[in-house]
Each structure stands twice: as C-alpha cells, then as structure tokens.
Specification:
Number of strands: 6
Low-confidence stretches: 3-17
Number of helices: 9
Shape: globular
Mean pLDDT: 93
Structural class: alpha+beta
Order of helices and strands: EEHEEEEHHHHHHHH
Largest sheet: 4 strands, mixed
Number of domains: 2
Strand content: 15-25%
Strand order of the largest sheet: 2-3-4-5
Length: 296
Amino acid sequence: MRKYYFFILLGLSIGTLQAQELNATVTIDAEQTGQPNYQVFRTLKDQLTDLLNNTKWTDQEFKNQERIDCNFTLIIQSFESTSFTGTLQVQASRTIYNSTYDSPIYNYNDRQFSFEYSEFQPLVFNINTFNSNLVSVLAYHVYTIIGLDADSFKMNGGDSYFNIAKQIVNTAASSNFQGWKATDGTQSRFRYNDAMISNVYQEFREAMYLYHRLGLDLMDSNARNAKMGVINAVAKLKSVNDRRPNSFLLRTFFDAKADEIEQIFSGGPQVDINTLVENLKRIAPTRSANWGKIKL
C-alpha cells in the first residue's frame, strides 16, 4: 500500500530526475494528418515518455511496483509548422490489494488540446511559469492522476495534488489556449479541477476512498464486505448527483468504472442490489446497458 506525504516543494522547478510516480505509456496517432510516419511524431512520443516517467512529480519515494500505470493517447488531427491540434485521452489505474487486478481510476478525453512544439525542444515542467501548453496539460493530468490515486488510499489524501493542478490551471489561464478558464465550457480541465477541490463535491472524494480502500481492497478477504463498500460509495455519488445532476466529474467517473461495477455485481456472494441499481440508473442513465446486466 502506498504511503502518502503531503509536503510538496511548490517553489522549485521540477526537472527530470529518477522516476518515482508513473509508469506511463504514450501513443501518438497521427493518421488524420495524412503523414503518420512523420519523424516529428516519433520524437514527440519519446520526449513525452521521458517527461512523464523520468520527472519527479512529488517529494515522496515510490517503489517500482507502486508506480501508477497510465496511458496518454494523443490523436493529432492537424498540424502546420509547429502548431498542433488534436485530442488527448488519459487513462490511469490502481492496483487492488493482494491481487494482480488494476482498477481504472481516471478516464478523461481532453478535447480542448492544441499546442506548439518544435522537434527536440526541451520539455521541462516549472510550476511557477507557463512555457508550453503541451507540458502544462500533461502536468495537469499527472497531478490529477496522483491525487485520485492518493484519495483511493487515504480519505482526502489527494488534497495537495489537486491544489497543484489548480495552480497549473491558474497559471495557464493567462494563455490563449482552451480548457483553462471558467468560460471554456462545462467539460474542461478548469471545470474538473474546480469540482475536485469544491466542498460541493466532497462526497465524490469520500466515494473514491470507500470504493477502493473499503471496497475492492477487501475483495480477497471478504467479497461481501467489499461489495458493500462499493454500494456505499455509489450512495455517496448519488448525494453529489442530487445537487449537481449529470456533472462532468461523475460522467468521467463512470467512463472509467461502468464496466467494472457491472462485473463486481455479476458474480460472487449475493448482496441486496435494488438500491444500488436504482442509484446507478439515476446517476448514470446513459450506462443503462451496464446496469441492466446486474442480476445478483
């Protein structure tokens, strides 16, 4: 189990040091550009892989088996000279205690993604300045991933990391790139982070802990209690949905978790699922196909 410490050196430029936190895979799909084999895309992939895996993002030590598995898929739609436009799909998972199963914790499709990049330019993250939208977007998602992972082990364990993501948002808001401002729509990096640090969505943070630490982590020792932990987590999410129906935060959660929840309640010891299914249908009606397969 990971141990989390919450002192972050915000004043330092965070350079490329020995990998501590992430086990990241980068994929670049440039088919839409008509030049998918262009050398710049291979260089970009290598540089981003190095940035994500060889940057020390926090002040804590992660053992190799504790590093967070994540995937960053860049779909480049167009480019001209050094200007690139596309989307970024970010996924991350968390290993469940005493198992080889990885539970998805983040599945975010970042559609407000454009950046400037010259081949071989240094990609270095400095929390105090905005030098590259490419680096800032990736750093934002990195700290969101680390925060969600920390929340799944300790109640509100991700506070420091979500606050760093907020600082990235604030710094990048002075740029002309989309996704960083309150006016950039309801499905933006600003909106997601604003929800994560708002008391209005506090039950979401509690649900992350209940779902994983008091839910799936118990599956090996007591599957019935594990299922009850998940049921209690979903009840917390209903409280959030009652105040903010169809919120971006909850939609992103179920993008990651819908298939898993269906599988959890499709085998093993029986529990009362009536309230669970009712809550799921209310919170995430677009996932009704998943909820209809829950039969126990």
